[in-house]
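Can't attach files on this board, so I'm pasting raw text. These are the components:
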Amino acid sequence: MAEPEFVGPLSGSRSGPGTGTAESIAEMTGVVKHYRTRGRGEVHALDGVTLTVGRGEVLGLVGESGCGKSTAARLLTGLERADAGTVRVDGQDLAALDRAGHRRLRRTVQLVFQDPYASLDPRQRIGDALAEVLTVHRLVAARTAARARVGELLEMVGLLPATAERYPHQLSGGQRQRVGIARALSLQPRLLVLDEPVSALDVSVRAEIVNLLDRLRRELGLAYVFISHDLGMVRHLADRIAVMYLGQIVETGSWEQVSDRPVHPYTQALHRAVPVADPAVEYRRAGDAVRGEIPDAARPPAGCRFHPRCPLAEDVCRTEVPVLAPPSGHRFACHVRQRELGVVTPTSAERPADARGRLSGQPATASRSTGARP
Amino acid sequence: MSVTPVVTETATAAAPPAGRLLTRIWRDTNGRIGLVLTAILVLAALCGAVGLLPHDPIAQFPDARYRPPSADYWFGSDQFGRDILARVAAGIWTSLRVSVVSVALATLVGATLGVCAGFFGGWLDQVISRFVEVLFAFPAILLALAVVSALGSGWFNTAVAIAVVYTPIFARVARGPTLSVRNAEFVNAQRVLGIPTHRILLRHVLPNISAPVVVQVTLALSWAILTESALSFLGLGTQPPEPSLGLMVADAQNTITSAWWTMAFPAATIVVAVVALNLLGDGLRSALDPRREQSR
Amino acid sequence: MTAAPVEPSTDGEVALSVRDLHTAVGGRRGSLRLVRGVGFDLHRGRTLALVGESGSGKSVTALSIAGLLPAGVRVTGGQVLLDGQDVVRWTEGRRRALRGGTVGMVYQDPMTALNPVMRVGSQVAEGLRAHGWDRAAGRRRTLEVLDEVGLPTPGALARLYPHQLSGGMRQRVLIACALAPRPRVLIADEPTTALDVTIAQQILDLVTDLRDEYGLAVLWITHDLGVVARIAESTAVMYAGRIVERGRTADLFARPSHPYTQGLLRSVPAADQPHQGLLPQIGGTPVSPATLPGGCPFRTRCPQQVERCADQEPPLLRRGPAEAACWVPPEDWRPVGAAEVRHG
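---
Top answer:
Structure tokens for the assembled complex are below.
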């Protein structure tokens, strides 16, 4: 099913500065995104986030509501622009894209939504929805070619070609999500951003979709940003994991490091909070829930943003913003853990000049983020 | 335009066939009555237009003045000996022509404004919404009168005047649902997929807001008939000798005591037309109800 | 009888008993059977988890018990016994007194279940007034119950409106509403699904603590096997309107008997599964009440069906420590209760 021509046309049709040379398919560097809301003030959706997605790599992005994971998805797919910092896809700065560049971006990064029903036009047949994308991007010449390609795409995600004649409401949740994936793949992207792709589905069909995603990745050499609140799912699928809390990355590393040997107290709390289907494990966990509410992202706490809920919190946590350290490998932003494990952190002189001390993995490149917003 | 014939054809196939819509209206009691009455009116107008009726609506017969309803003159005749049935049929034709054209214009302009305001938001929404509010501030008939006085009479100018009155209603009816569709996930999905904005508007937003607009169309048709009659009654709409229901009612004011039929039949026709289109609108509303669609 | 617990000695007295419950939605073109013969007992101080996917009938079962079925849906058979009385046949007035008074309910969405223009304290007190508490006692109880559900400064909080609270606090308020009139039974319909995981964990712990303190009998409806493992002593798995397996949670998770339960448990990624390997999956699509196949409803997705599965729907049969509705393997099944086997 992995026809060679499926991957082929991508490299040929693309040109422009930086194409194909970068190690990573996508990078965010010191990205800041705030939303001004009526009544609540300015919501800090992302505050100095730096992350990279390697070619063919699965990056798991874990966190709860308000952590900024969905904002990251919208920025990576070009639905929104960063206030500060840079988002690069395939080596190109998204802020500098012209019309043609945006078109190329669509064919490099695609998004799969959480709710497959809401993300399909209820009045459009499945086949028409897929054919529309193909014709708009001039990927097929004639009507018969569109129909054939739609059939191929549907088969690729494990659906019968006859599904093309159906309307979204005639499909089951799992089938709809397969259509969502097929539609994203119709543009032959190299990076799929998956925003909670299985949480809206019935438990018994989740495994099928996860297996499908795993197969497609191998066959097509895709990279994924897999966004979820379910550490178990992320652990299963991801090569690397980044844990986010209130717009910042608090821990990142390989899937084994973050999921099986978490260091940051928030990651540990998250780990305990996700119920696993094993009464023996769950029995031991009763009563050790992390305390407190998730703070309003419009008024993030000073210092370490997790300190009001943290069992390890000390005075330094209330005033000083922790920085992700060590510089590579298993990195975490926690004063106490860094001291306990003897991790050398950048001195305050090397930190971003921002007075509120935004968390940033790359202090040197933070120049754009400092004067970001009024 | 990157719209290619391929998708145009398949997309039209996706629209619900008109036959099924009629069946669904028929299932609704109000819709059924409205449909039958509307059909009768249209049929009468058509008969008059193609000359199937025994008398001419304009030719005057001094011998046949003020004939009461009879086998020959079903609705009687007026002060010039003209057949009232023929004039009513022709009047329906005039009224329908004016109301259909005016509502078509109002829908086109109003829905376009409303969809653009709802979809793009920001300053465009502000400008359009304020403009709509200003138009709303005028009483409908006064606004129509003002426009007709400015443009001069004649059926097309009457239609334009009525269209101006109903444009803000369509703008408002289209804007609300557009706002919610704009934020629907599938519109986001299409942006990510690189579907051009004009295409998202035409192919995805419009079909999904069409139900309230279509219902509004039938209701506006009935109001437009009333407004046209009112304008003609006031002497600013259709000009004599062309038959118009409003004009006939105006002419019959002096003869109502001696020849009741000169007033009764045109007036009743106006009432029937308004009721028919309102009922049809009701039927259409329940036929297009998405909840009903789901239960099917 | 029907829900003969596997180890009756360790369970408290039965607070509520559901027997052979049938619920259907009537349509012009015939009725759809949403719940087809469900039975279980709720014990004081214990939690029973009712697990299932969308369309399995788990929520309809809860609504049937509380008498909150939407228009067109009605109980067509069976009993809901509270102190030996069948509440299904009660009038709406008596049932209203029962709801809240004896049976409290907590819903999935804390946003929509609270009245947005009413102060939190008034919403709790309103329920109390409806159950005959006078104003002063109602106010005292309101502050008390807000404190019991772990809300800080109940006095100040009672004067807030729902939108001024976080999702977790709203869910605590809903629990306070449900528990204020001191019910004996609490029905919780996916109350943590809309919450963040760290907040959901707090709610799970809270309900378990309150249950232990007041000897509540809890029916917890969920699709999340992890939640079941955390809070429930016993579990009933629903599929296509029937219970297909039930037993003590520890036994059921350790040795699931029904192929559906087995498939569900295996398909959840776990630490002992290979990283990025294929997850064992249940094939096919969940059935809906409109598309029930004849015989066993799970047979269209079942990897181990035999000839008999197409002919006859299996009743709940004792299999080892649990009960399951499956014909395979036939060696060790035996009937568990006449009432359960009756329908088929």
